[in-house]
Write a structure and sequence with these properties.
flat, mainly alpha, 3 helices, 90 residues
Length: 90
């Protein structure tokens, strides 16, 4: 149906955006570019999980997975920020 086509295009678009962020992570040039790229990837992955959950009609399970992934991402970003703060980067 038309909804299946819509979900397919949304998933493809999110995969393309994740690829763009992955390019930023791999190319840099600064550590801040890499951290922002990783945060962008995780945000798009969370949205992708919700879309997959909606498509498969199991959205409750995927919301739980997405929430856990978001919390792990937050803790990781705070750890990197604390590390960079201690390192003394501007």
């Amino acid at each position: 149906g038309s909804m299946t086509t819509f979900f397919f295009y949304v998933m493809v678009l999110l995969a393309i955006l994740i690829g763009a962020y992955l390019y930023r992570v791999l190319q840099g040039p600064t550590i801040f570019d890499r951290v922002l790229g990783l945060n962008g990837i995780s945000t798009k992955a969370i949205i992708l999980f919700i879309v997959i959950g909606t498509y498969s009609e199991r959205v409750n399970m995927f919301i739980d997975i997405s929430t856990g992934y978001a919390l792990i991402n937050l803790v990781g970003a705070l750890a990197v920020a604390k590390y960079l703060e201690q390192k003394g980067l501007p």
